[in-house]
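Design request, tokens follow.
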């Protein structure tokens, strides 16, 4: 059966009360103009402390397009995005920020490429309207990551993208906790293409990414997609060993033939502090990986749902195929009671 094309727009929300009505208005206009449907907007409230959830519920009451998921607390942007992807039912999903830095008006250009047969159409940042130091940091980070990672990660591509259903299904299979979705999206493969899109300024409100959160996201990108930092320790270790060997040969020569011992207390102190610094640095790097292994081993759910609005969409729309309705979101599960019974 040939059913009409349905698009889902996935948006994480964290304290976005000032943007939400405008976001829904502009996205609504774009979705109205798209062929097929009914299209949906999947909004995930990431534990907002303002009126975001209230507005979301009020809008959902008269807008059948809205699917709302409220997380039990703030789990972070990437976890909220994951929750949104887990609740999308369309043939393709557009991942978008709430603050209208990603213009919804670009969506038809994504869909056009999707119809040309691409599974992932991502926006590359042609121009950014952000502070110069942030622009420079983004520029350097994406290039550093490209050098470090074995994957061919596209430069200057953020989360704003259209992803086909089959890629979304593959993303849902990836259980990792420190998620760097734009990297995972590349990792999945299939046909991918970037289109240049201007990144505007935030519509209103403050950026929800503190400097710390940005650094965390960047390190998730590096540590999840590269083990080069670990290998660097091997290289540096080998280099230090070779240098030490050469110096030993020199010291023996000086002792046997010139009848004196090499001097240099200051050099010794410098060398010891330098090498201890390097050792501690690489212990830190190993610690980063070990910490991430620990996070994964605990296998906690990526997010916990407090409440859903208009989910599952089949109830309102009656258009879901049974197999897509069966893709269950990653809701928390209770561990089975232990059998060694002390009770
Ligand atoms: N966001 C979220 N949880 C967070 C932080 C941010 O869901 O803990 C959402 C936020 O509402 C927005 C998107 O992630 O839709 C991007 O955040 P923001 O625009 O503040 O980041 P920036 O564009 O400044 O990097
Ligand atoms: Mg933003």
């Amino acid at each position: 059966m040939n059913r009409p094309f349905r698009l889902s727009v996935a948006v994480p929300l964290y304290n976005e009360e000032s943007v939400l009505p405008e976001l829904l208005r502009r996205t609504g206009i774009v979705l109205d103009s798209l062929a097929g449907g009914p299209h949906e907007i999947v909004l995930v409230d990431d534990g907002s402390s303002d009126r975001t959830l209230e507005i979301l519920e009020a809008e959902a009451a008269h807008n059948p397009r809205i699917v709302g998921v409220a997380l039990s607390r703030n789990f972070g942007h990437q976890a909220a995005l994951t929750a949104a992807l887990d609740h999308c039912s369309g043939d393709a999903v557009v991942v978008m920020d709430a603050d209208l830095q990603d213009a919804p008006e670009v969506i038809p250009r994504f869909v056009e490429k999707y119809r040309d047969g691409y599974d992932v159409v991502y926006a590359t940042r042609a121009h950014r309207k952000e502070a110069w130091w942030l622009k420079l940091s983004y520029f350097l980070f994406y290039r550093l990551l490209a050098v470090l990672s074995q994957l061919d990660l596209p430069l200057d591509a953020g989360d704003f993208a259209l992803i086909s259903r089959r890629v979304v299904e593959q993303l849902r299979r990836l259980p990792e906790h420190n998620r760097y979705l734009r990297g995972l999206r590349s990792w999945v493969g299939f046909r991918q293409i970037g289109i240049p899109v201007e990144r505007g300024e935030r519509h209103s409100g403050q950026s929800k990414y503190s400097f710390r959160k940005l650094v965390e996201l960047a390190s998730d990108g590096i540590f999840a997609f590269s083990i080069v930092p670990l290998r660097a320790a091997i290289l540096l270790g080998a280099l230090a060993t070779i240098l030490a060997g050469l110096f030993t040969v020199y010291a023996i020569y000086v002792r046997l033939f010139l009848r004196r011992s090499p001097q240099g207390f200051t050099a010794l102190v410098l060398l010891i502090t330098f090498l201890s610094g390097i050792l501690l640095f690489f212990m830190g790097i190993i610690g980063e990986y070990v910490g991430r292994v620990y996070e994964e081993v605990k296998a906690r759910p990526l997010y916990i749902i407090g409440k859903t609005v208009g989910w599952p969409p089949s109830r309102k729309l009656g258009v879901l195929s049974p197999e897509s309705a069966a893709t269950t979101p990653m809701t928390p599960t209770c561990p089975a009671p232990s059998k060694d019974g002390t009770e």
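Comment from the thread starter after seeing the answer: thanks! Residues 97, 99, 101, 202, 207 surround magnesium ion (ligand 2) (CB under 6 Å).
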